Amino acid sequence: MIIKSLKRSTRSKKLLIGIAVLVGLISTFIVLEMTGVTHFFSPPDVQTNSEEPSAQSNFTGGHEREVIYSDKNEGIVTDTQGNVSTIPPESDWSSSADGIISVYSPTKNSVLSSGQTLSGESTVDTISFRLIDNISGVIAQGKISVISGKFSGIFDFNTSATEGRLDVFVTNTNGVESSIVEVPVRF
User: In what order do the strands lie in the sheet with 177-186?
Assistant: First the structure.
């Protein structure tokens, strides 16, 4: 009898210790979550670790694209009315998912400098572009005419950045962007 009583007492102590440990772990988890150390229930705001000035301090994905306008006028593209001198192999093109825009030049990850050409083809009358660097943000933007299915223009911009992106897209009358082609570039 005494042995049975001791076994029950030992089981009860183990159960109480287990419950105490579980309560302690849950309490610790709640404190860590509330103080922002862990992020199981609320994702953190991700901040850039760059010390350079940036057009965007946090980077979030999966949301509608915000239309970006700049008043810096740091660069332009002079419309050459669809005068495309060379067309690279189709494997080098960057195209929108719906096939409305294909960019011949610049190609992905190429070095882009002032005097080079923006060229491609489209099924719309006008395309919009936005050149973004990794320091200032938007450094050139505008529209180019599509003539006989082709568009072209000459870049004129200044930047001290080393990388960026060229966006080429269609803008409807409400300012909504579609058929977006993103071309990563280096400077």
Answer: 137-145, 126-133, 163-171, 177-186
Q: What is the pLDDT of residues 104-127, one digit of tens each?
A: 999 999 999 999 999 999 999 999
**CB neighbours of residue 74 within 10 Å:** 18
Q: pTM surpassing 0.70?
A: no
Q: CB-based burial of residue 145 (10 Å sphere; 0-12 exposed, 13-18 middle, 19+ buried)?
A: middle
The helix or strand, by DSSP H or E, that contains position 163, with its residue range, turns out to be: strand 163-171
Element (H, E) at 142: strand 137-145
164 CB neighbour count, 10 Å cutoff: 22
Alpha-carbon distances, residue 147 vs 92, 105, 167 (angstroms): 22, 16, 20
CB neighbours of residue 169 within 10 Å: 19
